[in-house]
Design goal:
- The structure holds 2 protein chains of 2 kinds.
- By secondary structure, chain A is of the alpha/beta class.
- In chain A, the strands form 3 sheets. Chain A has a 6-stranded mixed β-sheet, with helices on both faces. A 4-stranded antiparallel β-sheet of chain A has the order 2-1-4-5, covered by helices on one side.
- Chain B is mostly helical.
- Chain B is 76% helix and 0% strand.
- In chain B, helix 1 runs parallel beside helix 4, helix 3 packs antiparallel against helix 4 and helix 6 packs antiparallel against helix 8.
- The longest helix of chain B has 37 residues.
- The relative contact order of chain B is 0.13.
- The chains are: A alpha/beta, B mainly alpha.
- At the A-B interface, strand 6 and helix 3 of A face helix 1, helix 3 and helix 4 of B.
- Chain B: Keywords: Membrane, Transmembrane, Transmembrane helix.
């Protein structure tokens, strides 16, 4: 599903959670939605899913307004760690209602995922661990097969193997059933390999929206002897550096043209990629 | 509108299970009373207060648990309101029928044991064998209690404590008008006894039903403006 957001404002009393945000997302891609605490990620997603009415601005999904529009909302799924879809009785009850209310529900897929995440239908949701509840939310989100599926920190509490399983299943199912997926997460390095495009928001506004590869190409690690590294990176935006004996590695922000790359090679410097998380920290203003 | 079969089925199944357990508990309690003292009338009549509270919380949980679930599953608030209203409209008579059956079961073991089956307070019915009138009284009461629960649940979900303060008086009013319509006396000491507040309506079954329907519709009408654009809570 295509997502079009124009001049969106969402205000909680005196606080602007989203402040004049505009965004356009093409269909059938996996998007990473990144932002610091309080940046407006969850607020944006809650408006996209019609969990909230926007204060001002326009949200169109496939060209149609979303709030209280059943034709649109029935094709949208937002799974949050709050657990709206799982807070009823047992796992069986959760699946019972999901199957009834979700038009694209795949019961067989849900059963497979239950097994994969070691959940049973008789488990009481209230007595589950945080990780198990998150896994159940993830199952509801994946088996719902909504054309616009969003996960907002849905993996909170899941252990590393469970998160890895979630990412593998998500990718495999996306390949088999392409749809628009938006993932908001603070575990940037863990989820960034899934992203085709990245949207970074800060203070309720879009800071960056571009392809993940393009974004990653803006950050470069320059490694070599300390003096040549310092000379090469002089005047560049240095995001951070590490030294080990005579070797230094500097993370810089900005693109290098062919001439600069040849210059680096001539100085015996190695150029390599840096983690998306380091770029994210820089693009959202560094340490506050 | 697709009939809310699953919403209804989930609550009816749970309600029927609770009722079955409650019938057994009350029967055992009656036997205990007979052993240590004397059974002077219907225990089921006295026990009816708990089912009212259960129906009230059924209304609360409809909004507290199922509204967020509906919206999170891509349903509109309007669709939820339609389904919730239909669910209350079917759930209340089913529970009222179970209450009437409860009296009939009690009539049976009271007759077998030779215990009296008198009533302690005014009702729409004069004897516990008048199943139709028993059903009517509890139907109208349960419609009011469930709708009051939905109203109070909506107020609390939207505005927390402030919403509770705002909707509680309206919820109590719905219950009192329904009680007045059935000619029964509510066991609500702060309202009914201390404030000496009673609603007495003409003794006529059509009027009783009309008032019951009015209370139900008024409760829904008061609840809708609260939930029509309610944001889903973050916590």
């Amino acid at each position: 599903m295509r997502v079009e957001v124009r001049d969106l404002v969402l205000r909680y009393e005196d606080t602007f959670a989203v402040d004049g945000l505009s965004l356009s997302l093409a269909e059938n891609k996996i998007y990473g939605l990144l932002g610091r605490n309080g940046s407006g990620k969850s607020s944006l997603l809650s408006v996209l899913a019609a969990f909230r009415r926007p204060t001002a601005g326009e949200v169109l999904i496939d060209g149609a307004p979303v709030f209280e529009n059943a034709a649109v909302t029935r094709r949208i799924s937002l799974i949050r760690d709050v657990g709206e879809t799982v807070d009823v009785g047992t796992v069986e009850d959760v699946l019972f209602f999901a199957e009834w209310l979700r038009p694209h529900w795949d019961a067989a897929f849900a059963a497979t995922l239950l097994e994969q995440f070691s959940l049973t239908r008789k488990m009481s949701v209230k007595t589950m661990s945080k990780g198990q509840r998150s896994a159940l939310g993830v199952i509801v989100g994946l088996a719902g097969r909504a054309p616009l599926t969003m996960f907002d920190e849905s993996h909170l509490g899941m252990d590393v193997p469970s998160r890895a399983a979630f990412h593998d299943v998500l990718l495999a199912d996306y390949m088999a059933h392409p749809r628009t997926i938006i993932m908001a997460s603070h575990l940037i390095d863990e989820v960034s390999p899934l992203f085709e495009e990245v949207v970074i928001i800060d203070h309720g506004q879009v800071v960056v929206h571009e392809e993940a590869e393009t974004l990653l190409s803006r950050g470069i690690a320059v490694t070599g002897a300390t003096a040549p590294v310092d000379a090469f990176t002089a005047g560049m935006t240095v995001l951070g550096s590490r030294e080990l004996g005579p070797t230094k590695s500097c993370m810089v922000y900005g693109e290098l043209d062919e001439a600069r790359r040849r210059e680096a090679a001539a100085a015996g410097l190695q150029l390599g990629p840096i983690a998306m998380q380091d770029l994210f920290v820089h693009l959202t203003g560094g340490s506050r | 509108m697709r009939f809310p079969t699953r919403l209804l089925a989930a609550h009816l199944a749970f309600g029927a299970l609770l009722w079955a357990g409650y019938v057994v508990v009350i029967a055992l309690f009656t036997v205990a009373v007979a052993i240590i003292g004397k059974v002077t009338g219907s225990i089921w009549e006295l026990a009816a207060q708990l089912p009212r509270i259960y129906v009230l919380f059924f209304g609360v949980s409809l909004v507290r648990e199922y509204l967020p679930m509906y919206v999170a599953h891509g349903q509109t608030r309007r669709r939820f309101a339609e389904h919730a209203a239909a669910t209350i409209a079917v759930f209340a008579p089913c529970m009222a029928a179970l209450m009437a059956v409860g009296y009939l079961i009690e009539n049976g073991y009271h007759a077998l044991a030779g215990w009296p089956q008198g009533l302690e307070r005014p009702h729409l019915f004069e004897s516990t064998g008048q199943a139709g009138l028993v059903f009517s009284e509890y139907l109208i009461e349960f419609l009011a209690w469930a709708t009051a629960g939905a109203l109070i649940g909506a107020g609390f979900y939207r505005w927390r404590g402030g919403g509770l303060l705002l909707t509680l008086p309206a919820g109590i009013a719905l219950v009192l008008v329904a009680a007045g319509a059935t000619g029964s006396e509510l066991r609500m000491p702060f309202v009914a006894k201390l404030l000496a507040f009673r609603v007495d309506l003409p003794d006529s079954l059509p009027v009783t039903y009309a008032v019951g329907l009015g209370v139900f519709l008024a409760g829904l009408a008061l609840t809708w403006p609260i939930i029509r654009d309610v944001p889903l809570r973050n916590r």
